[in-house]
Every structure is written in C-alpha cells, then in structure tokens.
Specification:
single chain; alpha/beta; Rossmann fold; 6 helices; 19% strand; 190 residues; globular
Length: 190
C-alpha cells in the first residue's frame, strides 16, 4: 500500500448522512459511520479545508425524481418530514458547502463541481451511505472530473454486504486510495 496522499487543496465530501437514510438498516452500524464522518469533518474544519455535506431530497410528489424501468426496484423509503435533514452529529457549520442531489451521484445536476473548482480543490475524501449507490456514483463522476479520491472505508456503509465489499475492494481501489479514518487523520496531521 502506498503512502496516504492528501493534497493541500482537499475537500471532505460526505454522502447522504441524513436522518431518512441513516435510519435504514445497514451492514455496519450507521452510528459508527456517522461518528467517524463527524470526526473527519471536525478535522477538516480545523485545518480550514472544505466540508461538503450532500443530501438527497425530492418534491413531495416525487415529480423531480428519476423514473426508470428497472428489474429491481428500490425499497420504499419512509419519507418523514425530516427525511432529508442532515444528522445532528455532523454539526453543520456556516462554512460547510451544502449540496442537495436528486440522483444517486452528487455531481450530476448540482453545483458540486463548480463549488470544488472555484476553491481550487484537486482531491476529495469521500464517505457516506450507501457505499454502492451514492458514494460509488459520486466517486465515478469525481474520477471522470479528474479529482484525486481517497475513500474512507470505515466512514461508509451499505444496505448490502456484498455490494459494499465489491465497491470498496474492486471499484474504489482502481480509482483512488482506500483508507481508514485514522489513516486519513494521520495524513492530515503530517
């Protein structure tokens, strides 16, 4: 394994750590993933590096949601009034960049790339829920946009163990570095 590289212009991007998603059953306890993500967010803020918090939301009638013909339908989501609210553990700060997406990935149809480029960001550190959906979709687009990517393996989880493992071990290792929270924090302090 090569040394963990953190560019001087790196942003933390956390996907769908919101009440409606974090409340779903996951392979790894969502509370543990959220605690690690919050720890990363504090460290990035302390160093003056951007923290990007991405949530997913739709119109009440889902008129702005993608309509697909698919053999496997997503499980029905409980859409409470606070579904898209970010979890309180993230301690959202005025300096944080808030992005709302209406797709799996955080780049398409949002200002994410614009916000990163205007800040000169060359690398993203990525985590969130779900590994094989929102995180992987965002990662693939980040790779296509030529961002360096570090995946925080213990700050992400999925609803399906095989899907999570496939993303982490077979996709992420081909487009970035897969590290733990502690390894990322050590690289930030270096």
């Amino acid at each position: 394994m090569s040394e963990t590289a953190i560019d001087p212009k790196t942003a933390l991007v956390l996907i769908d750590l919101q009440k409606g998603i974090a409340g779903m059953p996951t392979v790894h306890p969502a509370a543990d993933v959220i605690a690690k993500a919050a720890k990363l967010a504090r460290a990035f803020r302390e160093r003056g590096l951007p923290v990007v918090l991405v949530n997913v939301d739709f119109a009440p009638d889902f008129s702005d949601a993608v309509k697909v013909r698919a053999d496997a339908q997503a499980p029905a989501m409980q859409r409470d009034a606070d579904f898209s609210d970010l979890v309180s553990e993230l301690d959202v700060q005025p300096s944080d960049i808030l992005i709302t997406k209406r797709n799996w990935g955080a780049f398409y149809g949002t200002a994410l790339d614009l916000q990163l480029r205007r800040r000169g960001i060359t690398q993203i550190v990525l985590g969130g829920i779900a590994t094989s959906i929102g995180v992987e979709s965002t990662a693939r687009a980040a790779n296509e946009h030529a961002y360096q990517i570090t995946f925080v393996s213990d700050a992400m989880t999925d609803r399906n163990a095989a899907s999570h493992d496939h993303s982490v071990n077979h996709i992420f290792t081909r487009i970035g570095q897969v590290r733990t929270t502690d390894e990322v924090l050590a690289a930030l302090h270096a």
